[in-house]
Amino acid sequence: MIQILLSLACTTPRATDSSVDSKPSGDSAVHESADSADSAVDTGPAPSDSADSGPACPDAYADLDGDGFGDPASPRPACDAPGVWLADHSDCDDTDAAVHPGAVETCDGRDNDCDPTTPEEGLATWSADDGSFSDVTSVLAAGTAEAPLAMALDDGTWSFCGGTWYVQVDAEQSTVALVGYEGAVLDGGGSGTVVTVRGGTVSVADLELRDGEGSYATSSGAGPGGGGLACGEGATVTIDATGISANHAEIGGGLLVEDCTLSATDLDLADNSATYGGGMYGFGGATTFTTSTVASNVAEISGGGLGLEGTYATVTLDLVDTAVTDNSATYGGGLVLYEAAVATCEGSATTDGGFRRNTATSDGGAVYLTGGDFDPTLAATSCDFGSFGDDNSPADVYTNAGAYRLADDVTLTCSNAGCR
Fold first, then answer.
1. What's the distance, Cα to Cα, between the start and end of the chain in Å?
2. Which of 153, 177, 193, 291 has the highest local Cβ count within 10 Å?
3. Which helix or strand (DSSP H or E) is residue 51 part of?
């Protein structure tokens, strides 16, 4: 109807036009018709209004990663959309061309195919530093509880999704990341160290390392050790949000640190056993535990939770807001320090950092220090040593100068000469 009116406006003469004036003045029908048409044009919508009232311009969606699927979070009228804009809006990550509907789901903690119902559990992926990746599920799944897969790791990120993977992996002078999703477990099958690190840089995150039997041979000839993880030869290891449990070794049931720098945050080191150092034993290097738990580990002789021996090399251990609880041994239920071993315990009035409910059948419920040629040291800052039902037994700290019963939030230094 509007188009008809626009047509009339263009073809019907107005009453003031010269063509109308040339007609007889008594022809009122012509004047009325012209006036009617003029009125319709004057009161109807302008041509620009006619265009605005047409069909709406459909939305288009950006495809920044060029995978052919649009970003639902970026709608824009198609008439105004510059560049590559699509009618599709089913992409769930427009920053990654490998993520879109129909993509192959891989073990990387992302929804690759934009379908949250597609499971990742039971998948494993290796990603190289250049961004390429391979599905290594069939390779790693070949291990069994009776015959775990022994494998040397190439540089890159090894991702494990859900389930239990029976492996004994070795990173030698490599740069490797081991990452778990959905509660993935690396199980050593009770026949070897689960993760061995010889030099290089290795990170472990969101995994459970369990049922390993220490097979790492130390340079001093002691051992074998490190049921869950063993590191040496100048390696750097970081551990985050990981559990190391139910492992066994001659030394360092859960962890063995020899000439290695190891930093752990939110580590749960529990239920491991050994002759020396049920949870962890250090022969050299530097170890730091932050906001971690060392619990219910057992050593037949010394260092139920943790042990350090400074006979062969400098060895340090820093405990920051870390709870050492319910561990047991003959000497040093929580921690044993031999020779030039140095440990620090740093807590606060609002945390449980320190030693609680550890037991020794001989001496040093929490800590046992002894040295001949060298002087072991424990430096405590706001460190808890338990009280009432949380106390260590038989006493908190044993030194060559005698035994000490301490309280919570203690700041002092202990050595062969005693605690001050």
1. 101
2. 193
3. helix 47-52
Whether the Cβ atoms of residue 325 and residue 366 lie closer than 8 Å to each other? no
3-state SS class at 270: strand
Q: How many residues does the chain have?
A: 420
Beta-bridge mates of residue 126: 134, 158
Identify which of 180, 172, 174 has the alpha carbon closest to the alpha carbon of residue 210: 180
Residue 215: count of CB within 10 angstroms of its CB: 20
For residue 25, the enclosing domain spans 2-52
User: Domain tally for the chain?
Assistant: 2
List, for residues 51-93, the tens digit of each pLDDT value. Answer: 454 557 888 888 878 878 888 888 878 777 666 778 887 777 7
Q: Is there a contact between 287 and 267 (Cβ–Cβ < 8 Å)?
A: no
pTM: 0.80
| pLDDT over 80 at 103, yes or no | no
Q: Are residues 47 and 145 in the same domain?
A: no
Q: What is the pLDDT of residues 369-420, one digit of tens each?
A: 999 889 999 999 999 999 877 899 999 999 999 999 999 999 999 999 999 9
Beta bridge partners of 289: 264, 319
- What tens digit of pLDDT does each residue of 18-43 get? 443 434 444 443 344 334 434 444 44
With tokens 């030039």, the residue in question is 340
Note the pLDDT tens digit of each residue in 206-219: 999 999 999 999 98
Return contacts of 19-26, CB within 8 angstroms, 24+ apart. none
The model's confidence at residue 200, banded by pLDDT at 50, 70 and 90, is very high
Residue 94 lies in a domain: no
Residue 42 lies in a domain: yes
Within a domain: residue 180? Answer: yes
Separation of alpha carbons 279 and 296, rounded Å: 9
Burial of 194 (0-12, 13-18, 19+ CB in 10 A): buried
